[in-house]
Give the backbone structure.
Amino acid sequence: MPVINFKYSDLCTMLGEDVPQETLIQRIPMIGADMHETEGDCDDMSVEFFPDRPDLYSVEGLARALRAFLDIEPGMRRYDVGDSGIEVTVDPSVKSVRPYFLCGVVRDVEISDEFLRSIMEMQEKLHITIGRKRSKLAIGIHDLNKVEPPFIYRLAEPHSVRFVPLAMDREMDLAEILRENEKGRDYAHLLDGLDEYPVILDRNGDVLSFPPIINGVLTTVTTGRHDLFIDVTGNDRKAVKGALDIVATALAERGGRIETVIMHDGDETFLSPDLTPSRRTISAEECDRFLGIHLGPEGVSECLRRMGMDTECDGDAVTAIIPPVRLDIMHDVDVFEDVATGYGFDRFGGPYTLEQTTGGLSPLTTFSEDIRDVMVGLGFTEVTTLTLSNEREEFEISGLPRLDVVKVLNPITEDHTCLRPYLMPSLVRILRHNKHRDLPQRIFEIGFVVRDELTKPRLCAMSTASKTSFTEIKSLTESVLREMGIEYQLEPCNLPTFVPGRGATVKWNGKDIGMFGEMAPSVVVGYEITHPIIFMEIDLEPIVAEKRGTLF
């Protein structure tokens, strides 16, 4: 999740009052964040925000949200938007590459070193999150005083345009940038297969940006008072507009004046940015029922104002007037969530004890825990293995009866081509990976296999040592079955898995529920093990279903 770093003193300056640091540490997580550890009397603070709130990816956005949340200035923050008179043209040639392009101007922005770092961090976090590492959108922020409008966004041949990219000291053409510049190499894949590349040019043909790769050094933003030009290009108009609104309003929080530009996009002419809020009407009664509290229309409105929205009430209907930076509001339940946040998650519910709960462990879990205690008491170590396996180890090497398996459609490796029908091969793999360790090794697993496209619980225990015997594994199996409290019968097993005469089948109520014995030398060698192995595997499903009620 995105982490923003800021100064406590700077945040208080933007809030307009000195809020105790301890209050901020307690309240900021309530709007959907993880507060990183902050040492006492330390001016540096760090907050990790949930991905659904890109408007909070800067201290400017956080301050705007906290002014409402802490009841300093509840309601929606509105910005005066002027007209820059600047015209921007979107050439039809870009429609097949990155079709959406929106711009804006913010004037008289006083930029300090700290604010400059904040801008750069916000820009990069938006690139990574809603920008999907610039594949969905890319943002450019430019010193407007160094270029001359109008601007045009068009395609250019790779060798026809030259400029000095950021962090470089010589002119390069577009193809050279993709080959030699660090950012060019990082993002060149976004332009794979194109014969022409997008560029943003001013009246004189000077390059502002080569989106989504890199800006030109000409419009580099430095400290001091500047007029800024913002451009956002991308493949999703909603995301492009949202990113522009977030950046422009963040700059306005520092005292800048937002101005629109005239966009000429094909047959369409419009002003950008458009900070008109959206509206969504909800039922206060439905919201109360959804949250399990009683607020009524006025209470719902109060909570939404604490989340930076304005509201209008008409009986039970509450209309939320939503700021353009709130990209996460897409459904009524999103508004309900904001009501809950504004109400305070710390105010929900009350003390809970275990006696108040109605849930409990399933019979299978209870039974499995009892068997675990038995196996640990017998000197075995529990392991957990992958459900994925392969038919070669499940059947060809093991000698176990072949069954229909659920196959992986596009397996990444030859070791993981199906879902396992037995536990034994999975445990042998554990021994194979640990064959250089001291002996004896005794392991067990209570896990699921997949048979007839259903998951089935089984127990498998395995031991390898310099010397093993059928008597040892028979005693172990009978001890476990005795602890399960079942009456069983043993019959010889002729599977090639076992040494002839040293394998047995476990029967219960006339059904085969398991097997045990000494593993045949050919099987041991096939699994690349160097010492003898004994094992047992028991089907737990019928036992649990009989003793604890039907589960499956």
User: Anything to note?
Assistant: The mean pLDDT is 92.
